[in-house]
Automatic annotation (TrEMBL):
Subcellular location(s) per record: Cell membrane
One Pfam entry name: NAD_binding_8
Superkingdom per UniProt: Bacteria
Protein name: FAD-containing monooxygenase EthA
Catalytic activity: ethionamide + NADPH + O2 + H(+) = ethionamide S-oxide + NADP(+) + H2O
Stated family: Belongs to the FAD-binding monooxygenase family.
PANTHER family: MONOOXYGENASE, PUTATIVE (AFU_ORTHOLOGUE AFUA_8G02570)-RELATED (PTHR43872:SF1)
Heme keyword on record: no
A GO CC term assigned to this protein in UniProt: plasma membrane
Molecular functions (GO terms): flavin adenine dinucleotide binding; N,N-dimethylaniline monooxygenase activity; NADP binding
Amino acid sequence: MSHTDTAADTTGAKAPVEHLDVLIIGAGLSGIGAAYHLQDKFPRRTYAILESRESIGGTWDLFRYPGIRSDSDMYTLGYRFRPWENDKSIADGPAILEYVKDTAAEHGIDRNIRFRHRVVRAEWSTPNACWTIDAERTDTGETVRFTADFLMSCSGYYRYDEGYTPEFPGIDRFAGQVVHPQKWPEDLDYAGKRVVIIGSGATAVTLAPSMAAEAAHVTMLQRSPTYIISMPAKDKLANKLRRHLPTRLAYALTRLKNASVATAIYQLCQRYPEFMKSRIRQLQEKWLPKGYDIDKHFTPRYNPWDQRLCLVPNGDLFRSIRNDEVSIVTDHIDTFTETGITLKSGDELRADVVVTATGLNLLAFGGMTLAVDGRDIDLTETMAYKGMMLSGVPNFAFVIGYTNASWTLKADLVCEYVCRLLAHMDANGFAQCSPERDSAVDEEPFLDFAAGYVLRSVESFPKQGSKAPWRLRMNYFRDLVTLRHGKIVDDAMRFAPVSTC
C-alpha cells in the first residue's frame, strides 16, 4: 500500500518519497489501458502514471498535422474493455484522443497522472525488492523520487522531442518553409501554395490528400514506393451488428473479425507474396487512372508486409491522384534550391512548402536508464521475455505493440498478463519475479521489420531469442493463448519471497 518516506536531495535536505505498488510510465493509449486493467483487478493497489508531457494521449496528442488518423481500424486499436462506438472504423486523431481522454476520465484514471514528470532513472534493489525512480519535472527542472514494487513502461518506442530528417544538400538555400509532421506549426498557411511532401509512408499518404484540399498542388516525392491499399472508412458489418446486438457483444465480434482478417492478410503476404502482389496491383489498377505507371510509383522492391502496409480510407489518395490534385514522383533528391528541389534525374520540383515526412526516431523506454543493484543495464545485453519483460530485470514490464496489426491488441494482452503475474505473486507470497535467459537461445534483432525507422535504431534495443518464450511473436492469436491463458510459471521465470521496501 502507499506510504511516504524521505530521501536526501542534493542539498542534504529530506524530501518526501512516495511509495506506490505499481508505477506506470506514459499516459498514452498503453498507459491508460494499463491503469484500467490494474485498478480493475486490484482495486486496493496504489499506482500512479508519470507523463513527461502536459497532457494525456501520447502519440495522438503529439501529432497535429492535417488529416492525422489511425492506420488501423478502431475496433482493434480501441481497448478490449471499452467499445468504440463511433461509426467510422478509420478514425481521425482528434476522435482517438477524445476516446483515450474519455476512458481516463470515466474510470478516474486521470486523477492518478503526474504530468510533466520525465523518468530519467529507475534502479532496482534486490534486498529491498523495490524500484527507486527519479523523474525530472519538465516545468521546474527539479528531481522527484518515487519508489514502487513494480514498474511498467508504456512509453512506446518513438522519440517524442524530434523526428528523423536526413541531411538534405542545400536545404538552407530554400526560401520557402520546411516542416516536419512531428512539429507541425498551428499557423502554417499552405492555401493556394505548391507543397512537396518527402516520404512514402503512412504520414505522407495521409498528408497528401488532406493538404490537397487547400493547396494549389501537392507532390509526394519518394525514393521508393510503398504498398498502399484502400479500406472503407466505415465498417458496414460493425455498424449493422451495433444496431441489432448489445454494444459490447457487437464490439467483441467486430474486434475478432477484424483481427482475424488482418492476421489472414499478413499470413497470405508472408506465404504467398507473388499472389498478394498481383492482387494488390489489380486493386490499384481499378483505383488509379488508366495507364498510370504502377510499376514505378506503387510497386516496392520488397514483398508485401516486409514493411507496414499503408491503408487509405475510401481511396482518398487515389481519388486525389485521379483529380490531378496530387502527383507522385519517384526519384532521388540532388539538392534543394531557392525555389524547390532538383532531382537526380535533372527534373525540378518547385515548392513553397516542403514537408519532411521522412520518419521517426526510436527511443527505448523513453530514454530512461535502468539499473539493478547499482549496475546500469545495457539494453543490448538483455533479451525480451514474451515480448514484454527483460532478462535480468526484476518486476519490470513494457508494452510494445504489433508492427503488423493494431498496437492495442498486444497492449491489452500484456496488461492482462501483468495482472495475472501479480495475482500469482500475491497468492504465493512472492515479492520478486525476473526472467533469466537461457544461454542456449540464439540472439535475434528485437524487431524483425525492414522499415527504415527500425533499421536505424534496432541495434540499441534489447534482443529477442530464437525460440519461445524469448521470441517476439507478431501473431495476435498465438499471443492470445500464451498471454491471456498460458502458464505463469515456466523454466525462464524466477520468483523470490517477500521482503520489505
